[in-house]
Amino acid sequence: MTNSTPPNLGAVITNPRARKVVYGVYAIGAFAIGGVAAYFLGIGQPIPEVVVGAQAVAAYTGIGVGALALANTPTPDP
């Protein structure tokens, strides 16, 4: 069995400024979606299906955003 080298996820978005934009857009979007859900819960109304769906999409895309952040976090030397 041969060992294969995993792909360099840090090469997905190499520009730090572009990564900052991706992180910012994700954070603002997730915050807004959560705020809308909290509003409906606060007024005692059911959360609209579109908001529930948006929450699911935000959670799913968080996997990729987290992987991008992890790939670009420097590891300390042992």
**What's the number of structural domains?**
1
Rg of Cα set: 17 Å
- Report the biggest beta sheet as strand number plus sense, adding barrel if it closes: none
Structural class: mainly alpha
Number of helices: 2
The helicity comes to 55-70%
Determine the mean pLDDT.
Answer: 87
Rounded to the nearest angstrom, the distance between the terminal CA atoms is 28 Å
% residues in beta strands = under 5%
Task: List low-pLDDT spans.
Answer: none
Gross morphology: elongated
Number of strands: 0
H-E string:
HH
Describe the structure.
The protein is an all-alpha fold and 78 residues long. The protein has one domain. The chain is built from two helices and no strands. The chain has helices at 16-42, 49-71. The longest helix is centred in the middle third of the chain and has 27 residues, at 16-42.
Which terms summarize this structure?
single chain; about 80 residues; 2 helices; mainly alpha; about 65% helix
Give the gist of this structure:
By secondary structure, the chain is an all-alpha fold. It has two helices and no strands. 64% of the residues lie in helices and 0% in strands.
Topology:
Layout: H1 16-42, H2 49-71
